[in-house]
UniProtKB/TrEMBL annotation, chain A:
Organism of origin: Suillus subaureus
Gene designation: NCS6
Subcellular location: Cytoplasm
UniProt name for this protein: Cytoplasmic tRNA 2-thiolation protein 1
GO cellular component assignments: cytosolic tRNA wobble base thiouridylase complex; mitochondrion
SUPFAM superfamilies reported for this sequence: Adenine nucleotide alpha hydrolases-like
Automatic annotation (TrEMBL), chain B:
UniProt family annotation: Belongs to the CTU2/NCS2 family.
Subcellular location: Cytoplasm
UniProt gene name: NCS2
Biological source species: Suillus subaureus
Pfam families: CTU2 (PF10288)
UniProt function note: Plays a central role in 2-thiolation of mcm(5)S(2)U at tRNA wobble positions of tRNA(Lys), tRNA(Glu) and tRNA(Gln). May act by forming a heterodimer with NCS6 that ligates sulfur from thiocarboxylated URM1 onto the uridine of tRNAs at wobble position. Prior mcm(5) tRNA modification by the elongator complex is required for 2-thiolation. May also be involved in protein urmylation.
Pathway where it operates: tRNA modification; 5-methoxycarbonylmethyl-2-thiouridine-tRNA biosynthesis
UniProt-listed GO biological process terms: protein urmylation; tRNA wobble position uridine thiolation
Name the UniProt record assigns to this protein: Cytoplasmic tRNA 2-thiolation protein 2
GO cellular component, as recorded: cytosol
Length: 353, 524
């Protein structure tokens, strides 16, 4: 059978079938359309302006590695005029994060970008290993997710950046839409398809891979021979999210457009005005100054639970009230340092080799 | 002894099993009798259970009966038209049929010697909520070879309720001009045909084609279904055909209310399935809608049909128990239709499976979706599913994925294309040829995706002698397509003279011919 020619350039031999469009295309056209689509996502959403300092949330995994590479490529190709940084969070998971951070350090050399690593231990006094030791594997993702979000903001503030970009891809967003519907999280459902979010006093967060399929990111990393770390977290994944992920993969197998169709659905609806009016107003945490919808932010609540040996009982708001009923927090417990938007922490620059 | 059979095992060391119900085994309502059923950790006895379901049904339906809400706390119920029940023979619709009959139609007063209600028809006691009730059933056996026609089985069930009129429909009616004449009152029965690719699937451009051949309604429907690219699309198309057939029938028969027997479980499944197929914009309509065919002038007529799902607070489990305890016979659905794979079937398996580990998920999905509304004002009604649609669907799709290098938007980016791929790349402005007429702008995102989104498993091979075009349901051309240019003389849009001249001018060699053309134009 004669080789199929590329559907786009009609010249080279097609070597892959794009999951997003079903078209059979050549390698060079794949690189071009992948990068150009990300460029269109960035420019049409007006994510950056020249001179912006942008931190790339880097875990060493495929998404963030491809993001760092593509951001650097587009910044040079289209003269965005951005100062790019790598920002990594060390959750303290032995045998997982320490290895992936080695990949990030290599990426720092390969892409010639400054790198900042901020650890949970440094910020909260707890590593994920220590947390799992106290609470077990169940619900540990709640702690990790809440701590990471705040750690990224604090790391970004230390780098004095205007913007954090993360490697969330189309599959992640579609999965989050489904998750939020299934667990009734109306506040998150309303904002999870936004390409850029910004809380009061916090740094902008964007998802340039919002419309990029996970499979295409893997293909891109593979064909570009990028250096990334591909091991899953050793602690059990969030069971509920696991269900949603499996369901999404089944939907994608039935019809590949399902991922982008879910995102379109998420963009097409919004929370009714009368429901929005009943949602809690955003304020700042009385203990650490980070944005919060209660007197204490979620990270401070979780940390207090850990410090008081009641970590399992602070997952829900109801449990939090129960802990409050026992008595106020002792004065001598460890707390998160006060959040300031422009603290100064030393940044590790790439060594000249 | 522990569950593992080891008597030495400490009871404390075992995972405590969560209680299936609350503290007491007695009915939570009457607190007298022992419970017979557990509904989300609450126990009910048999006697209390039926009135609770009846009450949930009425609570979901009655606030929508009167055309206007009024100020009274307990208004007298009076609908502005007839009642239509969509009946599939399944569990939910069988229960709906029974509750509607028992609640609103069976308690009519006895007739006098002359066969008229005692006290006269206008006596308040004799005024019913709806003047009459019709039961619509759509037979889908025409869509699948070897499927049993169940119309007579269904008729025998409906005949047990003498106050109801049975209206049998067939899925192929969607392609039948005589049915359309009956419901629309219009003698014109135009039909839109779509171009097919060499694989026998509808082309991505949704180009309108000339009529290929005369087909019977069954042949037309089968041609349409076989031109759809995925099992998901076939399942979704059948669901839409059924829905729109019933909507038009109910509307043409002067109904003010149309009831579907979807339980809370099936509503949650259809909401999640619709979102997964890009139907987020019409999420409100999945729960409850006010529908009317858009008139030729583009304005909505006054007689609006309210589509209500009164079992929206009753789970499938409750429906099953209700039917069992009240001896309601359920015909059931054909297994062949159930076996269609695709997003709808996957969603059903997922939600039902999830319900075991996370029992509140079903109601959470429905409650969450009740809090949502579409972002923008609709740009019209989708030609295929007759639901509100967003504007600029194709633009959105083009924006997020590059499918061709001839797109104007790419002009600036093509400079960055790698050199090996530039060989055959024609960056010149493409010649101005008449654009093919397309249905793209007349469809909602979900229907557009249904017709064009392909499977990852490769395309099917065309059968020998496959047609080059397929007909669409007859209501696609119900209004305004003449004006929109999708159909007219033949099936091609008549291009305005000035536009035609501009197009032709690009191919003319010199000004003299152009002047001659302008001269000829006067006589066109």
């Amino acid at each position: 059978m004669a080789p199929t020619s590329c559907s786009l350039c009609r010249d080279a031999k097609a070597i892959l079938k794009r999951p997003k469009t079903g078209q059979q295309i050549c390698k060079n056209c794949f690189f071009f359309v992948f990068e150009t689509e990300v460029h269109h996502t960035i420019t049409e959403s007006k994510l950056f302006k020249p001179g912006d300092r942008v931190a790339i949330g880097a875990s060493g995994g495929k998404d963030s590695t491809v993001l760092a590479y593509v951001m650097k490529t587009l910044n040079e190709r289209y003269n965005y005029g951005l100062d790019l940084f790598l920002l990594s969070i060390d959750e303290g998971i032995t045998g997982y994060r320490d290895d992936s951070l080695e990949t990030v350090k290599r990426n720092q050399q390969q892409y010639d970008m400054p790198l900042k690593i901020l650890s949970y231990d440094e910020l909260y006094g707890w590593t994920m290993d220590a947390i799992v030791e106290q609470i077990g594997k169940k619900n540990n993702c709640t702690f990790c997710g809440v701590f990471r979000r705040q750690a990224l903001d604090r790391g970004a503030a230390s780098l004095k950046v205007d913007h954090i970009v993360t490697g969330h891809n189309a599959d992640d967003i579609a999965e989050t839409v489904l998750m939020n519907i299934m667990r009734g999280d109306i506040a998150r459902l309303g904002r999870c398809t936004s390409i850029c979010t910004q809380g009061e006093d916090t740094i902008k967060r964007s998802k340039p891979f919002k419309y990029a399929y996970e499979k295409e990111i893997v293909m891109y990393a593979y064909f570009k021979k990028l250096d990334y770390f591909s091991t899953e977290c050793i602690y059990s994944p969030d069971a509920y999210r696991g269900h949603a992920r499996t369901f999404l993969k089944d939907l994608e197998a039935a019809r590949p457009s399902a991922i982008i169709d879910i995102i379109h659905s998420g963009e097409a609806f919004e929370v009714k005005e009368e429901i929005k009016a009943t949602q809690k107003a955003q304020q700042t945490c009385k203990r650490c100054g980070y944005m919060s919808s209660n007197d204490l932010c979620k990270a401070c609540t979780l940390l207090e639970g850990l410090e008081r040996g009641m970590a399992n009982s602070v997952i829900t708001d109801r449990a939090r009230k129960k802990m409050d009923a026992i008595g106020p927090a002792p004065d001598n417990i460890r707390t998160i340092p006060l959040f300031r938007s422009t603290p100064t922490i030393a940044v590790e620059l790439p060594s000249q080799s | 002894m522990s569950s593992c059979g080891n008597p030495a095992t400490e009871e404390q060391a075992l995972m405590p099993r969560r209680l299936k119900f609350g503290k007491s085994k007695d009915c939570v309502r009457c607190r007298l009798k022992p419970g017979n059923i557990v509904i989300r950790h609450a126990v009910y006895c048999k006697e209390c259970f039926t009135p609770i379901v009846d009450m949930k049904f009425r609570k979901a339906l009655e606030p929508s009966v009167n055309a206007r809400a009024g100020t009274s706390k307990r208004p007298k119920l009076k609908a502005s038209g007839n009642l239509c029940l969509a009946f599939s023979g399944g569990l939910g619709s069988s229960i709906t049929l029974d509750i509607v009959h028992n609640t609103y139609f069976s308690s009519r007063p006895p007739l006098d010697d002359l066969g008229k209600p005692r006290g006269g028809t206008n006596h308040p006691r004799n005024v019913s909520v709806w003047p009459s009730c019709l039961v619509c059933y759509v037979e889908v056996c025409g869509a699948f070879a070897g499927m049993h026609d169940r119309t007579e089985d269904i008729r025998s069930v409906v005949e047990r309720y003498p106050s109801f009129e049975f209206v049998p429909l067939r899925i192929e009616d969607a392609f039948d001009g005589s049915w359309w004449t009956k419901v629309s009152g219009s003698n014109i029965t135009p039909q839109v045909w779509l171009e097919l690719s060499k694989e026998g699937l509808i082309t991505d451009g949704l180009h309108v084609a000339s009529k290929v051949t005369d087909l019977t309604p069954v042949e037309a429907m089968r041609s349409y279904l076989s031109s759809l690219p995925t099992q998901t699309a076939i399942s979704s198309a059948l669901q839409n055909l059924t829905r729109v057939l019933i909507l038009h029938t109910a509307h043409s028969r002067g109904s003010s209310h149309l009831l579907f027997g979807s339980s809370l479980t099936s509503i949650s499944i259809s909401l999640l399935s619709s979102i997964s197929q890009g139907g987020g914009y019409a999420i409100r309509e999945e729960l409850q809608e006010e529908w009317a065919p858009v008139a030729a002038s583009g304005s909505k007529p006054n007689n609006v049909l309210r589509v209500i799902r009164p079992l929206r607070d009753v789970t499938a489990k409750e429906c099953a128990i209700y039917a069992w305890w009240n001896n309601i016979s359920v015909v059931g659905r054909d297994k062949q239709r159930r076996a269609i794979l695709g997003i709808a079937a996957l969603t059903k398996n997922f939600v039902v499976g999830l319900e075991k580990d996370y029992p509140s998920t079903v109601s959470t999905i429905a409650r969450t979706c009740e809090k949502l509304e579409p972002k923008d004002v609709p740009s019209g009604q989708c030609r295929l599913c007759k639901r509100p649609m967003q504007s600029a669907i194709q633009e959105w799709k083009d924006r997020i994925s590059i499918r061709s290098y001839s797109d104007d938007k790419l002009a600036a980016d093509l400079a960055h294309i790698p050199s090996p791929c530039r060989g055959n790349l024609d960056t010149r402005t493409p010649p101005q040829v008449p654009p093919l007429l397309a249905l793209t702008d007349f469809l909602c995102y979900s229907c557009h995706t249904t017709l064009t989104s392909r499977s990852s498993r490769g395309v099917k091979q065309s059968a020998p002698g496959v047609s080059s075009a397929t007909p669409l349901p007859i209501w696609v051309a119900d209004r305004g397509l003449h004006e929109d240019g999708l159909i007219g003389d033949g099936t091609r849009r008549k291009i305005p003279k000035e536009e035609m001249l501009d197009i032709v001018a690009n191919f003319l060699i010199n000004d003299q011919e152009l002047r001659g053309m302008r001269y000829l134009q006067r006589f066109l």
